[in-house]
Amino acid sequence: MAPTSTPQTPFGRVLTAMVTPFTADGALDLDGAQRLATHLVDAGNDGLIVNGTTGESPTTSNAEKADLVRAVLEAVGDRAHVVAGVGTNDTRHSIELARTAERTGAHGLLVVTPYYNKPPQEGLYQHFTAIADTTGLPVMLYDIPGRSGVPINTETLVRLAEHPRIVANKDAKGDLGRASWAIARSRLAWYSGDDMLNLPLLSVGAVGFVSVVGHLVTPELRALVEAYTSGDVQKATEIHQKLLPVYTGMFRTQGVMTAKAALALQGLPAGPLRAPMAACTPEEIEQLKIDLAAGGVQL
Asked: pLDDT digits over 238-284, tens only?
């Protein structure tokens, strides 16, 4: 049974894009995934994204993806939205992943812009609608042109919002002006996909966050969004400014690298990264410790 949602906040307000724990030999660590998911929901997450970019989805198999969704649902599915990343640059493959996620019991789908092949806007529209047509699950789009090479233009977002199951957008475009127009015109539930812009995006109409730093500072993110939505903008700003070193430190390199390094420092499940990702160097870990300490994170 999926947790309660509203049209305004279909996946809640604070979601962490969860890493995928691996064992020392690189196998999927389902026990670790359940322990980490429980820790994150206990910390205050309304939901978890599994099999996203931070979950190293490009290097996990279809079977591993399904096993991970099933394990996380078993651990926290009665308390948090479990949203399965199913986006690829192959529409047929994405449809297969979406159907499997629905059969496995996922509460929603995250669908990233197709990457590398750089389709036109009509191709994006057809891709997203084909995936949304294939299940009964609510869909969160994921607009991240820095990775995909192609933005979802505002006109395309407006068209996609007409689909009854496309209900939200994760915005990592880094353009507050375009976000403002897209929020106003599409009425999609808008989630910040760029931690540094969590507060600015709230100010133009976002409802919450899909966060990497949520692995470490979920209570602070929850306090930030609750302060802002209750009208205490000064408190929200103070929390935002306190978190600046965390935002900066976690993205000096790829977020999955720093997230796994930080979790390991806290004794939480993480494990190694799969190639071509690489572990943080000792120098990068020392810098990460400095950044996190400056933001009040206990290691």
From this structure: 999 999 999 999 999 999 999 999 999 999 999 999 999 999 999 99
Give the whole-angstrom CA distance, residue 220 versus residue 225.
9
Give the SS3 label for residue 49: strand
CA distances from 259 to 81, 165, 198, 264 (A): 21, 31, 18, 9
Residue count of the chain, please give it.
299
Sign for the pseudo-dihedral over CA of 86, 258, 213, 147 = negative
Q: Which residue is associated with the tokens 């996909």?
A: 193
DSSP-assigned letter for residue 54: T
C-alpha 259/C-alpha 239 separation (Å) is 20
For residue 299, the number of C-alpha atoms closer than 13 Å in the C-beta half-sphere is 18
Active-site hit among 65, 115, 125, 142: 142
Q: Residue 34: how many CB atoms within 10 A of its CB? A: 19
* Contact (Cβ atoms closer than 8 angstroms) between residue 221 and residue 210: no
The total of other beta-carbon atoms located within 10 Å of residue 117's CB is 11
Residue from 65, 170, 173, 260 carrying the catalytic annotation: 170
Residues 6+ apart with CB under 8 A from 50: 18, 20, 33, 65, 68, 69, 72, 82, 83, 84, 85
Q: Which residue, among 131, 133, 139, has the nearest Cα to 106 in the 3D structure? A: 139
- Residue 299: pLDDT over 90: no
Average pLDDT estimate for 213-229: 98
Cβ-proximal residues to 144 (8 Å cutoff; 6+ apart), any chain: 53, 112, 113, 170, 172, 173, 193
> pLDDT per residue over 273-289, tens digit each?
999 999 999 999 999 99
**Closest by Cα among 71, 63, 78, 88 to 18:** 71
**Residue 142 is among the residues annotated as catalytic for this protein:** yes
pLDDT tens sequence across 1-21:
667 778 799 999 999 999 999
